[in-house]
Amino acid sequence: MRRILLVGAGHAHLAVLRSFATMPVYGVRLTLVTPLAKQVYSGMLPGVIAGHYRLDDAQVDNEALCGRAFAEFSRGRVTRLDLQARRAQLEDGSALEYDAVSLNPGSLVEDSLPGAQRTLAVKPLDAFLGALDERKLGRVAIVGAGAAGAELAMALAYRDAAVTLYSDRPTPPGAAADSRSSTAGELVSGYVNATGVSVSAASGATSTTG
């Protein structure tokens, strides 16, 4: 029996589990390690913030998906990998042995900006949504005007927040930095402007205060 350990429930690992659910692979024991039994699907986050979806509608049930994929679900965090022994150490002191391991825990927000400790990071998503519900949305500044930043700005503006989107690039909100075509960026920029979001282009944030 070949033991495959999936560390983290990122999009790639969710796709693997869905594949195993529809087409099981015999001779393989699959284990998923992730801190959350349920997690928010990032693609639906703006819709949840704007109120278009209920939180339950946007959650992925990791534990149930493992059940359908005939995989073991282990709730926890991997703190160390012993590549020689092929063993994963978990935060609670337990360990999981494996023959092959895949890492897909998702990303974190860059926090090197001076004053970042006073900001509200978008990730982890569940913590972000919880903190957002506890705050009164008046004026909101969003650092980063990529596709995710633009979607977040429009969702918050839909909730009547006064949103300013800060970008260190002169390109329109939502446009890729290396994109030769401005069509997508212009379309996104049009929607951003229509929602009343203020855009401060070519003026990246260097620090935060307050």
Folded structure, characterized:
The chain has 210 residues and is α/β, with parallel strands linked by helices. It folds into two domains: 2-103, FAD/NAD(P)-binding domain (3-Layer(bba) Sandwich), CATH 3.50.50.60; 136-200, 3-Layer(bba) Sandwich (FAD/NAD(P)-binding domain), CATH 3.50.50.60. The chain has helices at 11-22, 45-50, 62-68, 125-133, 147-158, 183-194; strands spanning 2-7, 28-34, 38-40, 59-61, 72-75, 78-82, 87-90, 95-97, 100-103, 139-143, 162-166, 198-200. The radius of gyration is 20 Å and the shape is elongated.
Radius of gyration: 20 Å
Distance between the termini: 56 Å
Strand segment count: 12
Mean pLDDT comes to 88
Q: Describe the strand arrangement of the main beta sheet, using strand numbers.
A: 5-2-1-9
The proportion of residues forming helix, as a percent range, comes to: 25-40%
Order of helices and strands: EHEEHEHEEEEEHEHEHE
Q: Tell me about the largest β-sheet.
A: 4 strands, parallel
The CATH class designation of the largest domain is: Alpha Beta
Tally of alpha and pi helices: 6
List the helices and strands and how they pair.
Layout: E1 2-7, H1 11-22, E2 28-34, E3 38-40, H2 45-50, E4 59-61, H3 62-68, E5 72-75, E6 78-82, E7 87-90, E8 95-97, E9 100-103, H4 125-133, E10 139-143, H5 147-158, E11 162-166, H6 183-194, E12 198-200
Parallel strand pairs: 1-2, 1-9, 2-5, 10-11, 11-12
Antiparallel strand pairs: 3-4, 6-7, 7-8
Helix pairs in contact: 1-3, 5-6
Short structural summary:
The protein has 210 residues and is of the alpha/beta class. It is built from six helices and twelve strands. The chain is 28% helix and 25% strand.
